[in-house]
Specification:
Order of helices and strands: HHHHHHHHHHH
Number of domains: 1
Number of strands: 0
Helix content: over 70%
Radius of gyration: 21 Å
Strand content: under 5%
Length: 274
């Protein structure tokens, strides 16, 4: 028998269910915090793809299709939508791994509170990155649904664009979280947006084929994680699969996410424990 304060009565046998993974407890904290803002977040998750696809896909796309006779043999909105899916995942992964990490370390000191409990450093890290994965999953599901409503989903393989986009977001989130844990102020975050995320958004194949770039910029684009995420999502949404290349795209993104997690564990330990 257990009292209201969780103290077991001596001499009594207490049946125990399966233990909850410690990292899941950390994730539940972030989910609880999200209860205050989920309505606005879900609303914008619907509005952004609708506005992007209506303005760029339908509006600008009508001009592109009339003059260029489609892009890569498909209507411009069909070409654009999977790229925006991957780019949105990149932006969410980057956003959720910058200021929230800084807040958890310096402003709200959430990580310190969690470490004062039985949670280990790895549990705290995995809980936060796991929550970012949940956020990415929610947004990408909504995005793919909006894509389907606009008629840009051409293959049943498009369902796999959801985990592909989540993987793209994590490939940015974990390295950026590792970097954010080393910062004393949020000044560097604006540099990440201006010098990394925005250029990748513009020049990684989201709006036009990378083949239209100068040769040296093409090679640079091939090395960026967003290019791999955009290409993988586009292949799946259009049903134009290239099995070997698509597997390599996924492995590249997974490797970057794992390396970022490894780096984050080291920088978190240096900042929070050592």
């Amino acid at each position: 028998m257990t009292t209201a304060f969780g103290v077991e009565t001596p001499g009594m046998h207490v049946a125990r269910g399966p233990q909850e993974p410690p990292s899941l407890r950390a994730l539940r904290y972030w989910a609880y915090q999200y209860k205050r803002t989920w309505r606005g977040s879900i609303t914008t998750s619907f509005l952004y793809p609708v506005l992007y696809l209506a303005a760029l896909g339908v509006g600008l796309g009508s001009l592109v299709d009339n003059h260029a006779h489609h892009v890569d043999q498909v209507r411009y909105i069909v070409f654009l939508a999977p790229g925006l899916l991957a780019s949105t995942a990149m932006q969410i992964g980057g956003n959720d791994a910058t200021y929230p990490v800084m807040a958890a370390i310096k402003w709200m000191r959430t990580y310190y509170a969690q470490l004062a409990s039985p949670l280990r450093l790895l549990d705290v890290l995995l809980g936060h990155m796991g929550w970012i994965a949940v956020r990415l999953l929610t947004v990408t599901v909504i995005y793919v649904a909006v894509m389907a409503a606009f008629g840009t989903v051409l293959s049943p393989w498009a369902i796999l664009a959801i985990p592909a986009a989540v993987l793209t977001g994590l490939a940015f989130a974990t390295p950026i979280a590792a970097y954010a844990a080393t910062q004393e102020t949020d000044t560097a975050f604006s540099t990440i947006y201006r010098m990394v995320l925005i250029p990748l958004f513009l020049f990684s194949g989201t709006f036009f084929p990378v083949s239209q770039l100068p040769q040296w910029l093409q090679y640079l684009a091939y090395a960026t994680p967003l290019y791999h995420g955009v290409t993988l999502c586009r292949d799946l949404a259009l049903g134009q699969l290239h099995p070997v290349l698509d597997v390599l795209h996924a492995l590249y993104l997974a490797a970057l996410a794992v390396l970022g997690l490894w780096a984050a564990q080291r920088t978190y330990r240096t900042r929070l424990v050592v």
